[in-house]
Amino acid sequence: MSAVMLKISQVSKHYRRESRNTVRALEGVSFEISAGEFMVVQGPSGSGKTTLLLVAGGLLVPSLGRVECAGSDLYALTPGERARLRANRIGIVFQQFHLISYLNVLENVILPSLAHSDTSGAGKRARELLEQFNLLPRCDHYPSELSTGERQRVSLARALFNRPNLLLADEPTGNLDRENARIVLDCLAGFTRAGGSVLMVTHSREAASCGDCLLVLEEGKLV
Amino acid sequence: MNLWHLVRREITYQKLNFILGLFSVAVASGVLVAVLTLLESHDRRTQQVLADKQARTEQEMALLEDDYRKIMLKLGFNLLVLPASQSLEQYYATGCVTEYMPEKYVHTLAEAGLMTIQHLLPSIEQKIEWPERSNRQIFLVGTRGEVPSRGPAPKKPMQLSVAPGEIIAGYELARSLGLSEGDRLKLLGEQFTVSEVHAERGTRDDITLWIDLETAQKLLGQPGRINAILALKCLCEGNQLAQIRSDIARILPETQVIEVDSKVVTRAEARERAAAAAKIALAEELASRASIRIEMEKFVSWLSPVVILGATLWIGLLAFGNVRQRRGEIAVLRAIGVGSTNIMLIFLTKSVLLGLIGAAPGYFLGLAAGLFSGELEVSFGAAAGLFSPALFLIVLFISMLLCVLAGWIPALLASNQDPADVLREE
Prior knowledge:
The complex is a heterodimer.
Chain A: E1 4-15, E2 23-34, E3 38-42, H1 49-56, E4 64-69, E5 72-73, H2 79-89, E6 90-93, H3 105-110, H4 122-132, H5 148-160, E7 166-170, H6 178-193, E8 197-202, H7 205-208, E9 213-218, E10 221-222
Parallel strand pairs in A: 3-8, 3-9, 6-7, 7-8
Antiparallel strand pairs in A: 1-2, 1-4, 4-5, 9-10
Chain B: H1 3-13, H2 15-75, E1 77-83, H3 88-94, E2 101-102, H4 104-112, E3 119-130, E4 136-143, E5 166-169, H5 171-177, E6 184-187, E7 190-197, E8 208-212, H6 213-219, E9 225-226, E10 228-234, H7 241-251, E11 255-259, H8 262-325, H9 327-335, H10 340-373, H11 380-386, H12 389-416, H13 419-424
Parallel strand pairs in B: 4-8, 5-7
Antiparallel strand pairs in B: 1-10, 1-11, 2-9, 3-4, 3-10, 5-8, 6-7
């Protein structure tokens, strides 16, 4: 039996706003992802998909529940320890890519090395990834000079730079055409085949069909 | 990839933001350096002005003394006609004439009508012991006032005579004996009334008694004899003292002529007055420049803090704007595992660079501004003289410190920013 990479237990996230009703973004969500598993969480906009991903990535403290990543209780760790765990174990792909505009493609991919003191071999690793994503000829280009698909591939390469065990992907194909979406989904599938775990949130049925397991999230609850 | 690389690339990319920050730092440090340079150049100029004025005063005093010398050649001399047998060595040693000559000599001289002599005052004097006052040593002088000369009529005849029966006392004698005007006293058996007490002169006059000539001749047993003729205001043009001496020697061959201290004293007084005037002028100049410096300091005391505070606030606003602009970037850095300390360091490193790079040109611009608007002559030498390595380092350090302080809160905000807030906004 494969090791559990991510375990979400009874996680709830409530946003309390003054003079407004409490927003229950997540309500008692539980599931786990094993190594080599590609899990897709599908749901409409506002169903809590991004919140679930942020909670799973150690970026948003849940109101209730427990999140374990590679055996560590994420929110029992100090912020520094959580940041180190993210740097070593987790890669994140965003729908809006969040590439840094003043860094070129190569530098954007190398960016995660900032979290590590030993940066030897960083350039080689980045070039390998760029070659894998067919972006090596574009390594000196800036994000503004890339197509949308290329930007998402750079974002994916950056997420994979630190050889994470868990890849969190937030609508990674949301802004892509069918061809580029296929490239990204193939890459994620390849990552799981290599032993990694993927948690992808999407509202796209086509993207959802690529996962090993599909969860549906509606109004913060798994249905 | 390291923080330095990231900071450098961001600065290169966000040139305008960084240049605006540099401009603020350069202006603030420039203003600070300019006002300090202005004060320094004012101080140096003050030293120069005072040194110049001192040198000029010394030159002027030298010229003034020469002028006085020349003028006094025209003003005339005070001469003393003494018996030829009088030893000058003894006279200078004791201050007293011991030899006598006939009183008629003064008349002979007056009759001769020398154009160069205005007043003639015969006198007899002797150092005596005053038997009525415990044999106290005094100088007794008998005088009869001016003998009219056939020479040029003086504008105002001198009235230096003493009436018979009256006596004039020197300051020290009067003070020590408690004499005052109207007192009666006895001298060598004769009764006198004190008609006047002289003010202090600081000379032998202070222990002298003056009576009329005839009485003095009688008391001293020298009837019809005198031992000095004082010739006052002898008018000479150029160096004619020798001529006067020659004239008097021709008329009174049994006499000798010496110049008394009129010129020396007058010249010394003139020099002292000129020196005092120069001292006052220097003090006034110093006070005037000190007053200007105080005004400058007042101006600096509000301008510098305002400019520095304004620049600090401006840099703080720029830093805050930079943080706002880079919220997405900060969120990504947090998401990939960069710690909050490193994120804070990214912004503080930029602040340090801003302070160091902005302050260096600011210092030299301030130095140039201070030099051009200051009072020193603009030259490379003056600039080099005003350049202070210590101040340069201090300005660099202060600028860096202010930039770090200005960027501290924005950096803190950046490091504490919740990445989830930004990433959820997508």
